[in-house]
Design a protein that fits this description.
Layout: E1 4-6, E2 9-11, E3 15-17, H1 27-35, E4 39-43, H2 58-77, E5 81-85, H3 93-102, E6 107-110, H4 118-121, E7 128-133, H5 136-150, E8 157-160, E9 166-167, H6 172-177, H7 185-212, E10 219-222, H8 228-236, E11 241-244, H9 246-249, H10 258-266, E12 272-276, E13 282-286, H11 289-294, H12 320-329, H13 352-361
Parallel strand pairs: 3-11, 4-5, 5-6, 6-7, 7-8, 8-10, 10-11
Antiparallel strand pairs: 1-2, 9-13, 12-13
Helix pairs in contact: 1-2, 2-3, 5-7
């Protein structure tokens, strides 16, 4: 298994730990993944939720805590690679990017929209940048845009597929097409093959721009990656590495509350479902009391935490920040429990070190 090389950064094990918010992947998880030879990723989504000043001033608190979490991760990582995941849909997106760059972050991974201005925001820094794409079309759009406006290409491309956790870059119809939404065994097989063709097409698009800029642009595959077999299959498709989120939730080092982890361990396959997020995208989560209650009606929003662009509290069925904070704190029956399709496969708490060794050497 070859290392993952991103410019002057080298991860011995080609595994990026997916950024999971709110408060699921912070400094402890990211630092430990980096220390074990992978790339640890901090989610910036409402990163300061535990800080006493968060309720009064979420943005100011988040920007301060972001820098603090990066520093904490560095201390754990022992020289390993630390990245952040910043959603394009985040309000004040530019300020989060600039704060991460000022803190000396190695890598910024950005999706939930097209990170059209990301090259400009990191200009003059050593920070590497990686858009998240889910289709041949979106990969070509972002590569052409950066080429035309900034005369540059990504340092890394993340392909996030339909089996990923949290908010998904697919419509319900696309999820059904790719066999990731209540499909039969045969439909799932056909859908998997269809999306693998999409992955190969994206890799070809990235190669075009890699050749133009005479640089290596690694591609990593995300969504449904759970074990060494999944990693090897992604590499066989032509990827340079993988991004994994769900498997790292049930680790001792994960920053989430133990009750959140236990919800994963208790879940069965039938509990994993597609939900409609209040921010207008399908998402994947564990069915619980919260989801059953929300199917019955809307919850009035009394406070806006200014998290996502385009969210109107008057029309939103519930506050996404509030329910994800409940999740991170372990208040699981009042929470939206985001997860990947394979969350039901988590059977025990384990150490990050053991997962990384299983993937690299088993």
């Amino acid at each position: 298994m070859k290392p993952l090389v991103i410019g002057d950064l080298t991860a011995k094990i080609p595994v990026i730990q997916g950024g999971m918010g709110v408060g699921i992947s912070l400094s402890r998880l990211a630092g430990n993944v980096a220390a074990c030879g992978g790339i640890g990723v901090i989610s910036t989504a409402q990163i300061g939720y535990r800080d006493p000043e968060f309720e009064e001033n979420p943005l100011k608190t988040n920007l301060r805590v972001l820098k603090e979490e990066i520093q904490k991760a560095r201390e754990i990582a022992r020289g390993g690679i630390i990245g952040v995941n910043i959603m394009v849909a985040t309000r004040k997106y530019e300020e989060y990017v600039k704060a991460a760059v000022q803190a000396g972050i190695d890598l910024i991974i950005s999706g939930a929209g097209l990170p059209s201005e990301l090259p400009k925001l990191v200009e003059g820094s050593r920070t590497k940048i990686a858009p998240i794409v889910s289709s041949i079309k979106s990969s070509r759009v972002i590569c052409r845009l950066w080429d035309r406006h900034y005369h540059t290409a990504p340092d890394l491309v993340v392909i996030e597929g339909p089996k990923a956790g949290g908010h998904l870059g697919f419509s319900r119809e696309q999820l059904a097409l790719y066999g990731a939404s209540g499909a039969s065994e045969e439909q799932e097989k056909q859908g998997k093959e269809a999306y693998e063709r999409e992955i190969c097409g994206i890799i070809q698009v990235v190669k075009e721009f890699a050749e133009k800029y005479e640089k290596q642009i690694p591609v990593v595959v995300a969504g449904g990656i759970f074990d060494r077999k999944d990693v090897l299959h992604a590499l066989e498709l032509g990827a340079d590495g993988v991004q994994m989120g769900t498997r790292f939730v049930t680790t001792y080092e994960c920053d989430a509350d133990e009750r959140y982890k236990q919800a994963y361990l208790s879940a069965v396959k039938e509990d994993i479902m597609i939900v409609d997020s209040p921010v207008g995208m399908p998402g994947r989560a564990i069915r619980n009391s919260f989801i059953r209650n929300k199917e019955a009606g809307r919850e009035p929003i009394t406070k806006c935490y200014q998290c996502i662009k385009g969210c109107n509290p008057k029309d939103t069925p519930y506050c996404i920040t509030k329910v994800l904070i409940h999740a991170a704190k372990g208040e699981v029956e009042q929470a939206l429990l985001f997860c990947g399709e394979n969350a039901w496969k988590c059977e025990k708490l384990e150490h990050v070190k053991d997962i990384m060794e299983e993937i690299a050497f088993a």
